[in-house]
Amino acid sequence: MQTQLAPEFQGTAEGAQAEAILSRCVHCGFCTATCPTYQLLGDELDGPRGRIYLIKQVLEGAQPSRSTQLHLDRCLTCRNCESTCPSGVQYGQLLDIGRGIVEAKVERPLAERSVRWLLKEGLTSPAFKPAMKLGQALRPLLPASLKDKVPAAAPAGAHDWPTRSHPRKMGLLLGCVQPSMAPNINSATARVLDAAGIQTLVADGAGCCGAIRSHMNDHAGGLADMRRNIDAWWPLVEGLTPAGKIEALVMNASGCGVTVKDYGRLLADDPDYAAKAARISAITRDLSELLPDLLPQLKSQLKNKPDAKLAFHPPCTLQHGQQLRGGVEAGLRELGFKVNLASCDSHLCCGSAGTYSVLQPVLSKQLRDRKLAALAPLHADAIVSANIGCIQHLQSGTQTPVRHWIELIDDALV
Fold it and tell me: Which candidate, 289, 291, 227, 223, places its Cα nearest to that of 257?
């Protein structure tokens, strides 16, 4: 696709990047066939190809409108289109550029600006934890729209952290909302790693991976979050703490993992952080990537025979963003779990997509219900996934327990 950049984008880094991405697009439309929002809405402009045209027009000097902004907003950033594209178009990167430009040129209504500000500041704030506790205490009284966002209080033992020391050490990002919404995911991760002879270390200064602000078009704020995390992790990476040196950074939320693995690219032009960011990305591993190495020790320590029937929902950030497929299911089966994918639409987004379920509730719930309908024929005792957003979103639409897969392994070790 040939692009004639408008003067304001000529000679700029984002203009050059966007032009390079656009040049790979051959208009084939394969992306449209696998786009969740196009499937729901049937509008070319609510599919990747249409959004690419909108961004191209803006880069060539067209004035974006409120309609342009809405079509870009409705994208889930699931990146299913990238898995489908035969030409390797980096649609997610292009969308970030397009959304940023449109955000600067089209003023949002006050109500939208307020909600977006509350999300990016509230979800990453220390005040989120007490607010979640209050919501859980009042959960029976909350309206359905809020109750969907507030999980039940964590079970007993959710905060039990192993105390043994091991020669092998790995860092873990706790995340911004996960410690309050589902703390057992982090502690279960630490317990399973402990059973495999790995000590889990946490950098107190690390917080949100940067995805929330970046997805709200606050790219400067997202980069600031990333730099803060690098500073917090660096003593562990270099072995400058009494706890020792970590061999990897573990992500048990695939949404965080896909972002941290991208630090190297996102901070490549920062002279102070480029090298450190590249190293952080290089040592970052999704929890599922560790499974093959952990299996021999875990198999010898299973105390409860896994007999539950599990349905696995692979998050988009795992299967499309990180291009990791099959690892969770293979590992669980090796440990004796009965786990299956939906026979159809396992590649499609569940509608969570970070803050999307708040900003686009109608589309989000339609996708959630579609996903649950695809999983229903498995008649599973539990649905498992690999990202806190997917877990909470799916749980809001079903009575079947929805959990992180690491929690099931942790239960089997008890």
Answer: 289
Residue 176 makes CB contacts below 8 A (sequence gap 6+) with 123, 124, 128, 207, 208, 209, 212
pTM: 0.93
Which amino acid belongs to residue 251? M
Whole-number Å distance between alpha carbons of 326 and 336: 16
Q: What is the DSSP string of 285-333?
A: EEHHHHHHHHHHHHHTT--S----EEEE---HIIIIIS---SHHHHHHH
Q: What is the rounded distance in angstroms from the CA atom of residue 266 to the CA atom of residue 13?
A: 12
Nearest to 56 by CA among 85, 95, 82: 95
Q: Whole-angstrom Cα distance, residue 83 to residue 227?
A: 29
Rounded distance between C-alpha atoms, residue 277 and residue 324, angstroms: 22
Residue 205 in tokens: 């200064």
What Rg, from alpha-carbon coordinates, does the chain have? 21
- Classify burial at 267, counting beta carbons within 10 Å of its beta carbon; exposed 0-12, middle 13-18, buried 19 or more: buried
Please, what are the averages of pLDDT over each run of 10 residues along the chain (414 residues)? Answer: 92 94 92 94 96 97 97 96 95 96 95 94 88 85 79 83 95 93 95 97 94 92 97 96 94 97 96 98 98 94 88 97 96 95 94 94 96 97 97 95 96 88
Residue type, 185: I
Is-contact 205 107, C-beta < 8 A?
no
